[in-house]
Design brief:
The complex is a heterotrimer of chains A (about 350), B (about 350) and C (about 375). With about 350 residues, chain A is an alpha/beta fold. Chain A is built from eleven helices and twelve strands. In chain A, helix 6 links the parallel strand 7 and strand 8. Chain B has about 350 residues and is of the alpha/beta class. Chain B is built from twelve helices and twelve strands. In chain B, the strands form two sheets. An eight-stranded mixed β-sheet of chain B has the order 6-7-8-3-9-10-12-11, with helices on both faces. In chain B, strands 2-1-4-5 form a four-stranded antiparallel β-sheet. The longest helix of chain B is centred in the middle third of the chain and has 18 residues. Chain C is about 55% helix and about 15% strand. Chain C has 13 helices and four strands. In chain C, helix 3 crosses helix 13. The longest helix of chain C has about 35 residues. Chain C is elongated. The chains are: A alpha/beta (about 350), B alpha/beta (about 350), C alpha+beta (about 375). At the A-B interface, helix 6, helix 7, helix 9 and helix 10 of A face helix 8, helix 9, helix 10 and helix 11 of B.
Chain lengths: ~350, ~350, ~375
């Protein structure tokens, strides 16, 4: 595949600030567009363009955005489910060693997979219907050679208990379970190898309200119990405010803003963050009536042909001439917040929370 | 029916006789819609909210049995239809579907024909029901697309559904649904598949259209935020029954059914620090083959009293305009009075 | 955990059985509700047994010519003789010649009662060269009389015996053809689905090309290339190969489609993220999910092969006598005279229709049951 271009500078000694577990720098993922009979390469879909973020040990980092923003792709790139086009992905192993995942081959990646896992959105497609819970949850252990059959069986039973399922269900197949329970099976599988990092990709979005709340509580309990670090991907702002310590807002493959949760919701710095918050209808009829809401014009742009300048400018109520020509960089501003907007300091935006 | 009434459902029953047993998907649902109001129907999956709507339109799946109850509609024109008595393919129900009730679905692609332009589809409906000629019908289609705030309506009238984004398709679907000035619009999870910014646009559009055309809307969703935003009154469904009906403010600020109350507490809200843990409803929605006897919610309810709740089906208790089907609705009412 | 997602569940035993049922048990459960498919399955099992044990099932040697019994009509089986129960028996047949037309006429001779004997010793045969025997499933113990369930042909050979031997050739040609096609289809389909890109495109184009060739002329061309002098057995193998060369494209399509569909399932990604090797992903996750679909597709491919063999042989381009296949047998029924005078010569045609239908019903049932988890 021709689009892979991993920088081949010599691996300098890699360093990370002490509290950082995962650090992504200048991450890019382009999908080539081929057209015509001869499949000529005519351009790129810039699914992820220049994303940099740090995830600290033990925190929950929320990644929000609308469909097509690339939030899931970021998680999949970090776990090396896809090959990246460019960038660095630094990860601190449990041993303390720091590795750049972007340089590892699939084979070299394998031993590291024990330390980072993923929970999927779709509780149906993410579990192989032809495997019992023992085989499903035990598979990572079988792959990594952790223990003999009896040990694996005991560990699976224990994991099922941890996620609130009965260990007697060990011989059942996934079709015996409801969506919420299946999601717990997925969580048990993710925990099987004692990872330090879990990416939860819309992990509760497909569930009913009452079941989603149960699973969110479970995720928080597990975080406390096992000292997990989460990357929590969602489009649900209420959920992310509840669970995340820091939040990154994505739009068309770019990070627009990164801030601690409270600051982001009380004082957003990017117009897109403001618009996103204003758009979410709250379960509060009186509040909705008094809240002024200016709906965003238009729709999310096309990643194959993104607008020039700031990708948000065609929809931005504060856009000026500069926004259409100059691409703003992700800048660090006061309070250690980061924002990708030319006028972040000048604008005075309204958050969802006073 | 009282003069302001548009639609009235009384004890509607829809059953699915399956090999594993009889599923009472809709088990005695009664609600009404007044002219020009928005009734929100909210419930988790399997509560029967969509099936009830389909019963109104007589668009039930083939396996379903309309086992009882009456559905009456009195549109603007003044005539009265007993929808529950109509056959799913009768001339009368087709007239009702096209002219008096419009419907919008979660996934517009399933309702729009992929091989015709959206213009053609709207034109066909208005030609059939309004007797317009081609040129007038086309003008009307462009008009309607403009009304649903489709950009460049004169161009988009010739677009095929697959050329549109999700939000645009939903707009086209709405244009089709309102093309004959219906008295009632049934919107079944119309914004669930959309992004929040698009969702906000569609909600605003529906509110504007409702005010402009004076139609009533039945808005079905599982999202309490959306229901708070658009509904005037709300019915909460659980396992084929309506457990509570009230004005939107009463539902959100003074719920009188434990299910409504518990559900509202389990939604994370912006700016409200509920502590680290979300209050949850214990257990799961039971499977439809083994609905608990008595009050269907009793195994998960913190108010449940053995011997009462798991034996008798609670009656509908009235508190002004609020109806709750709970043996202990008074107790919940008192709690609110103290707060 | 304070909020256990599970209330105490009162599990009924049969439900627990369902929850722990292996995938193939669920497939069987669903398949067994498909009555037509089930009946077809039994029919095909019976047919296969007949084909394998053709020597035993057939009462006579398929090549034995009896000059005094040409074009004899099917013998009826009776149980009562003159109002008395005597068990299964047949009447004798007397042969006469019409004085004016010189046509051979047969008349049932109700005087001769020939009880049907089971495990009767008749013609000698060698069973696949393993052993020789003369035991047949049934027969009549008389030197001059015969039991011809489906009549005889113009050389006096027993059509039923020829049909059972023909079943062996035709069914095995179908099965071997499908196996060849399966190997080709699986290999090329998985290469196509696994690598994608230009490899996929070229295999797709090749398949489209093969599918666009009209089959009869292609068969004729290929079959015409086979020298007459070749050993009939060798011709038989080549014919199955020819059938496979045309039939693999459909299977390749199924395999490729399944590969693409399953590759995109989240559980495959989950296995990869757990560190599973490609080998493990393919053998533990992809192939088990695909097998039931592939088996269904294979079943549906068999009738295509059988029809191909029959058509080729019927046209005289495929198998040739002395090999007996259903297509070869149908050649005997090619002229109007034999159809009008001896309609039982069409029985191989009926056998082909029934077998093809049975395979189609079975394949449909399997395809519906292949994914026991949907709905």
């Amino acid at each position: 595949m021709s689009e892979i271009k991993i920088s081949d500078q010599p691996a300098a000694s890699l360093t990370l600030p002490d509290d950082v577990l995962f650090s992504v720098r200048g991450l890019k993922k382009y999908f080539p567009i081929h057209a015509g009979w001869l499949k000529k390469h005519v351009g790129n879909v810039k699914a992820i363009d220049d994303v940099s973020l740090d995830i600290r040990k033990g925190e929950t980092f929320g990644l929000v955005g609308e469909s097509g923003s690339g939030k899931s792709t970021v998680a999949r790139l970090m776990l090396r489910a896809y090959t990246l086009t460019d960038g660095e992905i630094l990860f601190r192993r449990t041993s303390g060693e720091i590795v750049d995942l972007s340089r590892l081959s699939d084979r070299d990646m394998r031993p590291l997979r024990a330390e980072m896992q993923m929970i999927f959105q779709d509780p149906y497609s993410s579990l192989n219907p032809r495997m019992t819970l023992l085989e499903l949850v035990g598979e990572p252990m079988v792959i990594h050679g952790n223990g003999n059959q009896g040990e694996i069986r005991d560990r699976v039973a224990e994991l099922l208990k941890v996620v609130g399922l009965r260990p007697e269900f060990i011989n059942r197949y996934p079709h015996a379970f409801s969506g919420g329970q299946r999601q717990r099976i997925g969580i048990a599988r993710a925990l099987a190898l004692n990872p330090s990092f879990i990416a939860a990709d819309e992990a509760v979005s497909a569930l009913d309200v009452s079941v989603a709340a149960q699973n969110i509580n479970l995720l928080q309990d597990l975080q406390e119990q096992f000292g997990l670090t989460y990357l929590f991907i969602t489009h649900d702002l209420g959920m992310v405010e509840h669970i995340a310590d820091r939040i990154g807002v994505m739009y068309l493959g770019r990070l627009m803003e990164v801030a601690p949760t409270e600051l982001l919701f009380s004082k957003p710095l990017h117009p897109y963050t403001e618009a996103l918050m204003a758009a979410v209808p709250q379960p509060d009829p009186r509040g909705n009536r008094t809240r002024k809401r200016v709906p965003l014009k238009g729709e999310i742009g096309n990643a194959a042909n993104p607008p020039p300048g700031c990708s948000f400018h065609p929809r931005c109520p504060y856009a000026q001439a500069k926004c259409a020509t100059e691409v703003p960089g992700l800048r660090t501003v006061a309070d250690g917040r980061q924002v990708r907007c030319h006028f972040a300091e000048e604008l005075s935006l309204v958050g969802a929370v006073a | 029916m009282p003069p302001e009434r548009l639609l009235e459902l009384d004890d509607v029953q829809v059953h699915f006789p399956l090999r594993e047993g009889l599923v009472k998907a809709v088990n005695g649902v009664s609600y009404h819609v007044n002219k020009g109001e928005v009734l929100g129907i909210v419930g988790e999956s399997g509560s029967g909210k969509s099936i009830t709507a389909r019963a109104i339109m007589r668009l039930l799946p083939k396996r379903a049995v309309a086992a009882g109850g009456s559905i009456r509609l009195r549109p603007r024109t003044g005539e009265e239809f007993e929808l529950s008595a109509l056959d799913r393919n009768s001339r009368a129900i087709r007239q009702v579907r096209g002219q008096h009730i419009g419907m919008v679905f979660q996934e517009p692609m399933t309702a729009l024909s992929p091989v015709h332009t959206i213009g053609t589809q709207i034109m066909r409906t208005v030609q059939l029901h309004k007797g317009l000629n081609r040129a007038d019908a086309r003008a009307r289609a462009i008009d309607l697309l403009a009304k649903v705030q489709m950009p460049r309506p004169a161009e988009m009238v010739d677009a095929y559904p697959h050329q549109l984004s999700g939000g645009m398709r939903q707009r086209a679907m709405i244009a089709l649904a309102i093309s004959c000035d219906p008295s009632l619009l049934i919107a079944d999870e119309p914004t669930t598949a959309l992004d929040v910014t698009t969702e906000a646009q569609i909600l605003d559009l529906l509110k504007e259209l409702q005010a402009e055309l004076g139609m009533a809307i039945i808005f079905i969703t599982h999202n309490f935020g959306v229901i708070a935003d658009i509904a005037d009154r709300v019915s909460v469904m659980y396992l084929g029954r309506i457990v509570e009906t009230a004005t939107v403010d009463d539902i959100f600020y003074a719920p009188k059914h434990p299910y409504t109350k518990a559900l509202l507490r389990s939604i994370p809200r912006l700016g409200v620090d509920q502590g680290r843990r979300l209050p949850t409803i214990p257990g799961m929605v039971p499977d439809p083959f083994s609905v608990p006897p008595g009050c269907a919610f009793n195994p998960r309810c913190t108010y449940a009293v053995p011997g009462i709740c798991d034996v008798t089906t609670p009656p509908a208790k009235q508190f002004g305009n609020q109806i709750s089907r709970c043996h202990f609705a008074e107790k919940l009412a008192e709690e609110h009075a103290h707060v | 955990m304070t909020d256990q997602a599970l209330p105490p569940i009162k599990t009924v035993d049969h439900k627990e059985d369902l929850y722990t049922a292996k995938p193939w048990q669920l497939i069987w459960r669903r398949f067994s509700k498909h009555t037509l498919a089930l009946v077809s399955l039994w029919f095909l099992i019976l047919l296969a047994l007949c084909a394998v044990f053709a020597e035993q099932v057939a009462p006579y040697d398929p090549f034995k010519v009896s000059r005094l019994r040409t074009l004899a009509p099917p013998t009826a089986i009776h149980f009562f003789h003159e109002g008395q129960f005597v068990g299964p028996f047949v009447y004798g047949l007397s042969r006469e010649r019409d004085a004016d037309t010189a046509r051979v006429l047969y008349e049932v001779d109700t005087e001769t009662v020939l009880p049907i004997q089971f495990f009767y010793s008749g013609d000698k045969y060698s069973f696949f060269g393993l052993f020789t025997s003369d035991i047949h499933l049934f027969g009549v113990d008389d030197r001059r009389e015969q039991i011809n369930l489906l009549g005889t042909d113009d050389l006096g050979r027993d059509v039923f015996s020829r049909l059972t031997h023909g079943a062996r050739v035709t069914l095995s040609a179908g099965l071997i053809g499908v196996i060849f096609a399966f190997v080709l289809g699986l290999t090329l389909g998985s290469i196509s689905g696994y690598f994608g890109g230009w490899i996929d495109s070229s295999i797709q184009r090749l398949m489209e090309f093969i599918r666009s060739i009209p089959t009869i002329p292609l068969w004729m061309g290929l079959a015409a290339a086979l020298p007459i002098a070749w050993d009939p057995l060798f011709v038989y193998v080549l014919i199955t190969l020819i059938l496979a060369l045309i039939g693999w494209t459909h299977l390749a399509r199924v395999v490729r489609g399944q590969f693409f569909a399953i590759r995109n399932e989240d559980y495959v990604l989950a296995a990869r993220l757990a560190g599973a090797s490609e080998y493990r992903i393919i053998t533990r996750h992809m192939l088990p999910s695909m097998t039931s679909y592939i088996i269904a597709a294979l079943t549906l491919a068999v009738p295509e092969m059988i029809l191909g063999e029959t058509a080729l042989s019927f046209l005289g381009l495929g198998l040739r006598p002395p090999i007996v296949s259903w297509g070869v047998l149908l050649q005997d029924a090619q002229n109007l005279r034999s159809i009008s005078m001896a309609p039982w010569l069409l029985s191989p045609g009926v056998a082909v229709v029934m077998t093809v239908l049975a395979f189609n019903f079975l394949g449909d049932g399997l395809r519906d049951a292949a994914d026991p988890y949907g709905q």
